[in-house]
């Protein structure tokens, strides 16, 4: 089962946001893959960067524990040497298994003044139970070169803090990404007042499961759908050896 978490967190304390995340993850099935919105514990706390980074350090063991029996991802503010980074973390069965820094910073949000950009070469695949997973963080969704880089993924995760003024862009781009890469797209966006919501699970055929009025959206991941479209609409993507659904 794929699960998109969609909740408001701007203006809440870091601990309150952690409690919200915990409550939602407790509702997700065993062996599911879930995604939380971008910076869902801290939001873009430019006036509290040091505090947010310290909170990340202290909360990491609890975040890992939340993944016992399941998998989930989120992004966090971390301090590396003297610089702050927006790091995606993927937890699986109680362990941190993958980290990726946001490489394309959103200049309209002045991210470049507060964060150090990650290296595009860090954008790689991580495999879980035969599922090839890739990640694009919010603004990175807009770069065709990154779509090419993650070609061949079976599941693409998009944690986002995407404004409602460009809601249509988010919906069109995530659906097009699923169709172009013949993959599932799991996107989780903030439900804060100024945000687009539009969290969704999108199939390789472009079918969208989404609901702006719910904070947990779920849909089955079916490997046969990926294999079928890659076999009958062959654009050069390989079929993964795994089978079945989650």
State the CATH class.
Alpha Beta
Low-confidence stretches: none
CATH topology: Nitrilase/N-carbamoyl-D-aminoacid amidohydrolase
Average pLDDT: 96
Q: What's the main sheet like?
A: 6 strands, mixed
Structural class: alpha/beta
Termini, distance in Å?
Answer: 5 Å
Gross morphology:
globular
The tally of beta strands, per DSSP, is 12
Q: What is the percentage of strand-forming residues? A: 25-35%
Number of domains: 1
From the alpha-carbon coordinates, what is the Rg to the nearest angstrom? 17 Å
Could you state the order of secondary-structure elements as H and E? EHEHEEEEEHEHEEEEH
- CATH homology group: Carbon-nitrogen hydrolase
Q: What strand order characterises the main sheet? A: 5-4-3-2-1-12
Total of helices = 5
Proportion of residues in helical segments: 10-25%
CATH architecture title: 4-Layer Sandwich
Pfam families: CN_hydrolase
InterPro entries: C-N_Hydrolase, C-N_Hydrolase_sf, Omega-amidase_YafV
Protein name: Carbon-nitrogen hydrolase family protein
Keywords: Hydrolase
Task: Note the topology.
Blueprint: E1 2-5, H1 14-25, E2 33-35, H2 49-65, E3 71-80, E4 83-92, E5 95-101, E6 126-128, E7 131-135, H3 144-149, E8 155-160, H4 167-181, E9 184-189, E10 200-202, E11 208-210, E12 216-219, H5 223-232
Parallel strand pairs: 1-2, 2-3, 7-8, 8-9
Antiparallel strand pairs: 1-12, 3-4, 4-5, 6-7, 9-10, 10-11
GO molecular function, one term: omega-amidase activity
Protein name: Carbon-nitrogen hydrolase family protein
Pfam families: CN_hydrolase
């Amino acid at each position: 089962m794929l699960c998109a978490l969609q909740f408001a967190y701007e203006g809440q304390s870091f601990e309150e946001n952690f409690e919200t995340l915990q409550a939602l993850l407790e509702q997700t099935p065993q062996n599911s893959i879930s995604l939380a919105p971008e910076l869902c514990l801290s939001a873009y706390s430019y006036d509290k960067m040091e505090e947010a980074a310290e909170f990340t350090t202290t909360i990491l063991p609890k975040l890992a524990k939340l993944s016992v029996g399941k998998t989930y991802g989120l992004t966090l503010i971390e301090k590396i040497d003297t610089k702050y980074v927006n790091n995606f973390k993927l937890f699986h069965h109680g362990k941190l298994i993958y980290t990726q820094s946001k490489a394309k910073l959103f200049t309209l949000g002045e991210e470049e003044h507060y964060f150090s950009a990650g290296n595009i070469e860090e954008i790689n695949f991580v495999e879980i139970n035969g599922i090839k997973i890739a990640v694009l963080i919010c603004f990175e969704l807009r770069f065709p070169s990154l779509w090419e880089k993650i070609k061949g993924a079976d599941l693409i995760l998009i944690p986002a803090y995407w404004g409602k003024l460009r809601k249509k862009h988010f919906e069109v781009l995530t659906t097009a990404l699923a169709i172009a890469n013949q993959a599932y797209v799991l996107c989780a966006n903030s439900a804060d007042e100024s945000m687009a919501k539009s969290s969704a699970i999108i199939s390789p055929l472009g079918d969208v499961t989404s609901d702006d009025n719910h904070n947990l959206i779920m849909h089955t991941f079916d490997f046969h759908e990926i294999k079928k479209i890659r076999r009958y609409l062959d654009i050069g993507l390989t079929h993964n050896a795994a089978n079945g659904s989650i």
